[in-house]
Design brief:
Elements (H helix, E strand, L loop, with lengths): L1 H49 L12 H4 L4 H11 L3 E3 H10 L9 H12 L2 E5 L2 E4 L17 H6 L4
Antiparallel strand pairs: 1-3, 2-3
Helix pairs in contact: 4-5
Length: 158
């Protein structure tokens, strides 16, 4: 019986060593990916400074307009400049350039949280959202009724 405990302990110890090696390998891969991402971001930055990357017409000179705005206001402004559509990766880049985002590592999750909690955007594709105009925004009355075209039509309204 005592021997079984030793075999179990040895097996678990070996498993811990194996899992730690796997974790180290994954951390190494993540560090390599981070370095590649930084290299690509640097390349884009250099091309942009050299004038070899042309921004979409909707985003030209928008960075100064974003400075001093709140995050949600900046997102609204970016979307309105591009016909109501918002690409989260573009918003991250523009807001970073405007100084609204200081930590790019968590910027995308922060922006997705802001977008989802605001209720002002609807998802139209992965990484893309559409600004819901104030006419289309859904809201609930204090007595629980919802404002929707369907409920208005059911009541005989237009």
């Amino acid at each position: 019986m005592a021997n079984d405990g030793g075999v179990l302990f040895d097996g678990l110890s070996n498993l811990i060593v194996k899992l730690r090696h796997e974790r180290d390998d994954i951390e190494k891969q993540l560090n390599e990916l981070d370095e590649e991402i930084k290299a690509v971001e640097t390349t884009i930055s250099l091309y942009r400074k050299a004038g070899k990357i042309h921004e979409p017409e909707a985003y030209k000179s928008i960075v100064p307009e974003l400075q001093g705005r709140t995050h949600i206001d900046a997102l609204r402004h970016i979307a309105s400049r591009s016909g109501g559509r918002l690409k989260v990766t573009d918003a991250k880049r523009l807001m970073s350039e405007a100084g609204l985002i200081r930590n790019p590592k968590n910027a995308l999750s922060m922006l997705y949280t802001i977008i989802s909690r605001s209720g002002e955007f609807e998802r139209i594709a992965p990484g893309e959202h559409r600004l819901i105009s104030h006419v289309q925004q859904k809201f609930t009355y204090l007595d629980g009724r919802k404002n929707s075209p369907i409920s208005n039509l059911e009541k005989g309204g237009k």
